[in-house]
Amino acid sequence: MIGKARFFEVSGLSVFVSERQVLANVSFFLKRGEVVGLMGPNGGGKSSLAMTIIGNPGYRVLDGDNPSIILDGKELIDKRIDERVRAGIFLGWQSPVAIPGVSVFAMAKAAYRANHGEVETTILEFKRKLEKLLERVGLESAVLGKDLNDSFSGGEKKRLELFMMLLLRPKLVILDEIDSGLDVDGMRLVGDIVGEMRAEGSSFILITHYRRLLKYIVPDRVIVLKQGRVVESGGVEIIEKIEENGYKDIN
Ligand SMILES: Nc1ncnc2c1ncn2[C@@H]1O[C@H](COP(=O)(O)OP(=O)(O)O)[C@@H](O)[C@H]1O
Ligand SMILES: [Mg+2]
């Protein structure tokens, strides 16, 4: 279901964290159902771009370059993080944080309500829906009663991100190093789920260092961020080049 040019578009993103510039005039776009691989060396600005798109207030966007973040025709640059989430942006965190005292069930219910209004069915049916999704991502239903990301393994945290993504069915998904901590079966699972969701019209920004994840999901395009700038943008041949030579030759 790829179509509708520029379903998601960012332009002119120059971003500071405290006094430090982390992005310089970043622009790119995604069609509906497209997958972009976002690569680049450590510290290149990939997570900063994710934080900027989701609207983390610590990432200050400069006005000078006419910054814009448009999803499905809606300008989000002045919107708060919760408004962007409701508009259909989802970020799977590189390092999901533990929230003691908040169960997975409570979090899922709150997130679902915020996005879809009331839980449409009975709580029991909603719980069954969650259990099915947990099974899909390879987690036991007992995790519903556990505190969010508390005493979860690295791979379990990433699977929980996939669970939330399946529950919310966002328009734009950013997965920040979803492959770190995931085993081979986990990566294949990500491939299956991304394939299913892109066919339904979700677009993806996949942040990764490695070709191994991109074996399971072939991106439509690859963008390379280095020192906060887009230094390369093109087809999957870029992945081979990076695998062979690293990032040193890309400027
Ligand atoms: N919250 C922050 N506080 C201080 N520096 C930050 C913060 N976020 C990012 N940076 C800096 O911005 C640069 C880009 O980091 P990051 O976006 O995490 O890179 P990547 O995800 O590509 O490895 C790094 O130099 C990093 O130290
Ligand atoms: Mg990062």
Your description of this structure?
There is one protein chain. With 251 residues, the protein is of the alpha/beta class. The protein has a domain at 3-96 and 170-245: Rossmann fold. The protein has 8 helices and 13 strands. The chain has helices spanning 46-54, 81-87, 104-116, 123-136, 154-168, 184-199, 211-214, 237-245, and strands at residues 3-17, 20-32, 35-39, 60-61, 68-71, 74-75, 89-92, 99-103, 147-148, 172-176, 203-207, 221-226, 229-234. The strands form 3 sheets. Strands 7-10-11-3-12-13 form a 6-stranded mixed sheet, with helices on both faces. Strands 1, 2, 4, 5 and 6 form a 5-stranded antiparallel sheet that branches. The longest helix is centred in the C-terminal third of the chain and has 16 residues, at 184-199. The chain is globular, with a radius of gyration of 18 Å. The structure holds adenosine-5'-diphosphate and magnesium ion. Residues 17, 20, 22, 40, 42-48, 58 line the site of adenosine-5'-diphosphate.
Q: Sum up the overall morphology in one term.
A: globular
Spell the H/E element sequence. Answer: EEEHEEEHEEHHEHEHEHEEH
- Class computed from helices, strands and strand pairing: alpha/beta
At CATH level 2, the architecture of one domain is: 3-Layer(aba) Sandwich
Can you identify the CATH superfamily of one domain?
Answer: P-loop containing nucleotide triphosphate hydrolases
Q: From the alpha-carbon coordinates, what is the Rg to the nearest angstrom?
A: 18 Å
The CATH class of one domain, by name, is: Alpha Beta
The CATH topology of one domain: Rossmann fold
* Total count of strands: 13
What's the helix count? 8
Distance between the termini: 34 Å
